[in-house]
User: Fold Phospho-sugar mutase from Brooklawnia propionicigenes.
Amino acid sequence: MLSQGVAMQAAASAREWIEHDPDAGDRAELRSLVDRAESGDRRAADELDDRMSGMLRFGTAGLRGAIGAGPNRMNTAVVIRATAGLCEVLRRTVGDDIHVVIGHDARHRSWEFARTVAGVVVAAGGRAFLLPHATPTPVLAFAINDLDTDAGVMITASHNPARDNGYKVYLGGRMVTGPGRGAQLVSPLDEQIMAAIEASGPADGIPVTAGGWQMLDESVEDSYLSAALALNTRLATLSKASEQVDGLRVVLTAMHGVGAELASRVLGAIGVADLQLVAAQREPDPDFPTVAFPNPEEPGALDLAITLARQISADLVVALDPDADRCSLAVPDGSVDGGWRQLTGDQVGALLGEYLGACYAGDKHRVLARSIVSSSLLDAIAAEHRLGSAQTLTGFKWIARTPGLVYGYEEALGYCVNPQAVRDKDGITAALVGCRLAASLKQAGRSMLDLLDDLAVRHGLHATAPLTFRVDEAEQITAALRRLAAAPPSSLGGSRVREFVNLMDGYLGLPPTPGYRLETERGDRVVVRPSGTEPKLKCYLEVVEEVAGREQLANAKAAAAARLTQIKQELTACLGL
Assistant:
């Protein structure tokens, strides 16, 4: 419960915000909340304090938060000020004639926010290019380099709950050179934009035009399709195989997002003739009515897709998240209840890495990259194929900056398989590569599970698991990390901890980031870090079991599972959550 003084301060701050909020609906919403808080409604007072607790700040995926009035929410005023800050930073480098391409998903208010971004850019003297309809994030990321713009803004909250929206910034054109061209912004530019936002003044003092931007046509999406088909042709040549994708039966779900139409075009164009969409999740719906959370990682999110796959005896399930930058795969598995297994992000990461690694084998200047929280199996795959390997901080804004990148992934279902065209994760082209791999294995009478077993025999069984703590207050995360730093475990999973690294001190020469990394003498590792998008403390566990032969796989899997369970228990005790 808030003290009276804090409540009064929040109400005063809210009144000042209302005075300068250009959106009538947001003004009315915040005014109603103030009235309820001042009448003694404790819940309203807590909500008001949270909304006025500070500005939304750039995290792993840009600005992201609940839709609503106030500086700590996604709304018109916040979008105006964020865009004014972005324009100011762009002008410092390229002058007044800035070029910005803007896309949006189908979430609540996304189209409104996208037009607001365009209006601020035009009013600032720049050129704004607006994609014509709700579109996948990878298309926006592609458009930056395709159109040679200085920046791109995508209005999306990706796989967050329906109440959220967000604002992702990419830099290209005259702002960036090298492999980061077309990738999401990183420090120090994010801090520079935040400083420019703070200096921009109230939203009602920032000019916003009602037009003057250029509405793009379908040619950008057509160019994206052409780039995907060029990737397919390149892989067909490099793999020296004729994967018969026309013999593959695939179930696709867009999770009520914007990926169904374009993914269907891409997969159809490479020859996937038997593609069945989950009808109830095909059309964009900002309320995501058939899932508790529109995130393919969440339990139950693929239930409808797997039910359909079981009914039609499909070979593969492809699940995109709502903005289609992530991709999950599920495959038949007679050993589990229901007969289908959803693969983990690390498993898909290894499978795609093995396929692409074999395609690009022998060129040490080509690199397979992963985030530090993803499985080290990719490093072994790269070494076997005589390719370079790299680790980066979490987020594709870092992975995409890897020199020589031909493939990058992170365990949260993000895969970059065509970095020449899209310097970001892309669920649609990841699905393309997944279908090629599935078709190749099917022709040989094998499965993705068989290939995972092959990798375990060759490189050891790399078993990974998440451990996530959702909290109500950010201070709970800070306190847990403080406890871990003060008394780190001496052993995990029965093996002595040989390395305890504060990631703020830098790891492998990477930029400082909040969190810790632990590694045992056996080679098991744990990374603990706060989420950059949600109020969560996230732990990433990996254990490695040597496998003498396929007959030892069952024992190795059982031993790895037991050790992961033990490490989860030990880590939970250390964190005190």
About this structure: The CA atoms of residues 249 and 314 lie 5 Å apart.
